[in-house]
Structure formats: structure tokens, C-alpha cells
Amino acid sequence: MTTRKDIAQKAGVSVSVVSRALNNSGYVEASKKERILRIAEELGYHPNPVAVSLMTQRTKQILFYCRETRNAFNIELYEGMLKAAKENNYLVVFHGSLDFNSIRSTMVDGIIFPSEAAAELYQNMVGKIYRLPAVSAAFGNTFHYPKGMPMIECDCWKGMELIFQYLRERGHHRIALVMPYDISQDEIRIFAWKDQIQYDLEKDEIGTYYLGVSKKSLPGDKRVLEFGEEREEGDPYIAENFWGKGKLAAQIFRERRLDATAVICFNDEMAIGFLKEIQKLGYRVPEDLSIVSFDGTFVRRYGNPILTSLSLQPEKIGEKCVEILLKEINKEPFKYKYKLTPRLLEGESVQKVKR
């Protein structure tokens, strides 16, 4: 097996010069570096990743800590991370079954979280005593955001404004909101919807047009207990059943006999669940009811009709997360907050209101 010492002997230089040339760190004369790299290739040199890791104190690995591995948004977030990591010769490990304390024994240079809630939980549990460079994707829910951690978000407030503008231009004014949380939750989409809908609904109507699928929103409704996240409230390791909650929201929509002409859903998966169930209940989409969702993932194409959805640009968020994390790892300057602009992806689930 060829070693760096073999390369150094053939090139007539020291082992430290070979290391600098191969690691692309420190100064090596251009012609000398080119010769070292050529000799390394001729000798079939392949660095031992464990040895390199020990020498550089770097693993060239990033951990994406994510428990909801089947969530379309997280999948596209991960794809963006892979793209940016590959350009920087890094690997991204996708994991969510580890408890936070197990991260200490994981060989990674930094961590990326999919949301403010996961980042806050990590920092509160172990982050203060075990400090790895960390970055989080975010959605504007920064009311309890952990200090000292960079976040990359897409502007959900602006996104809600774009959705309302789009719907109002098509004659929609009575617009319901479908969410997996109670209306009292610190969630930017709830605040932004209430800010917009106050011009179209009476104050006492707002709660009725808010379709929150949670134990707190629907006290005494046993259907909510079908969802593990509601039975085991507060357990961070249970993935949310957005599809199922979307279906239940459709049932509640009919039970309340709402005259809404449009519905905005928390994400694409919840919207697909709502769409399938509302059609089963006899509503035509978009003829009777228009639907718009957040996220803009590949899931929107699974609807019939295809969903109109607000893209939060998960791939770009993923790319930016890696970019900022690597700056943090390499002790380069970076900003603590980056905000991307959402864009509306027009599908077939919205129709003009007929007069």
C-alpha cells in the first residue's frame, strides 16, 4: 500500500510538503504540487480516511438530524444539502433515530436541523455542554429560537401575502386555514393568515374558519387520538401524520358547513389528504372549493388536480445550510440569519369564483 512517505521519496520532498499538497492546505510551489499529485496518481495512492480525519481533526461528514424521514420537504432539503456538500467534498449523514445524547459519539463536523423546534430542543438538552457547529432551517417561528445558531428560512409571512393576493385576484375572500396545530400556537403561518383574513371575516368567525387538527383544537374529539403525536404529546421522536390530519380537516370542514371558497393548507401532504377526503365527501376541486398549500414539493403533483403551492425552496435552504455550516466549521465570517423569497407554483386546484 502506497504511503505519503513513498510519494515524498520519489518526489524528493519532505512528507509534510506532500501532506500540504494532497490536503490542499498551506503553501506549496505550483510546479512542485503538480508533480506530487502526478506521482501520487502514478503510485495509486489512496488516503486512509480515518488517518486523514485524525490528522486534520475533520471527518468531512455533516449530520442532518431529522426524525421525519418520509416528509417531502425534508427529502428536498436533504437533496439540496447533498448537492452543496458534494461540491465541497463532504458527505451528509441522514439520521433521526438517535437520541440527542448519542450525537456525542457520532463522527461528524457539524449538524443541520430541519426546524427551529428541533434546534431548540437539541441546544436545551445537550448543546450547552457539547458544542458542535450547527445550523437550522427555519420558518419564521423564532419566538423561542436558540441564540447563537445560524438559521436559513423562507419568508412565510411574505408567502401568505402572495397566496392571499393570488386568491383575491380570483374573487376569493372567505378563506379557511388547515393546520396541524391549535390556533394559539406560535406559528408564523397562523399569525400571517389572521393578519390577512381580518379584512374578510368577522372577528367571531375567525375561529370557525381555522381548521386546526390537534387535541387542543378539538377537545373531546376521539378522532384526533388516532394520531400518535397527539396521544404522546411533546414526544419529539414521533413523526406527524400530515396526510391523516388533512383528511380529518376535510371532515370538519363539511361538519361546520363552511361557505369558504378556498382553503390554505399547512403543507403539500396535508393538502393532498384534505383534497382526497373532500372529493370523497362530494366537493369538486376547484369548481366548489379551491386549495392552495405551502412547501411546493414534488408531492403537489400527486394531487388530482395538481396543487397550486407556495414553494419555500427547500433545496435552496438545504444548499444554504451546508454553505453556512462549512463557514462555521472553518471559522469564516457568516451571517446568523438568511431569508429566501418564496414563489407561487401554479397548479390546477384554484379557480375564479363565479359570480
Molecular structure report:
By secondary structure, the protein is of the alpha/beta class. The protein folds into 3 domains: 4-56, 434 Repressor (Amino-terminal Domain), CATH 1.10.260; 61-155 and 315-341, 3-Layer(aba) Sandwich (Rossmann fold); 156-312, 3-Layer(aba) Sandwich (Rossmann fold). It has 13 helices and 12 strands. The chain has a 6-stranded parallel sheet. The chain has a 6-stranded mixed sheet with strand order 7-6-8-9-10-12, with helices on both faces. Helix 5 (72-87) crosses helix 13 (314-329) and helix 7 runs parallel beside helix 8 (188-197). The termini are far apart.
Distance between the termini: 79 Å
Question: How many domains, in number, for the residues?
Answer: 3
Named CATH architecture of the largest domain: 3-Layer(aba) Sandwich
- Biggest beta sheet attributes: 6 strands, parallel
Radius of gyration from CA coordinates: 25 Å
CATH topology of the largest domain: Rossmann fold
Give, in spatial order, the strands making up the sheet with the most strands. 2-1-3-4-5-11
What oligomeric arrangement do these chains adopt? Answer: single chain
* Residue windows where pLDDT falls under 50 for at least 5 positions: 49-56
Instruction: Tell me roughly what share of residues is in helical segments.
Output: 25-40%
- The count of β-strands is 12
Structural class: alpha/beta
Can you say what the CATH homologous superfamily of the largest domain is?
A: Response regulator
Provide the β-strand percentage band: 5-15%
> Could you say which overall geometry the principal axes of the C-alpha atoms support?
elongated
- CATH top level assignment of the largest domain: Alpha Beta
Average residue-wise pLDDT: 87
What series of H and E elements makes up the topology? HHHHEHEEHEEHEHHEHHEHEEHEE
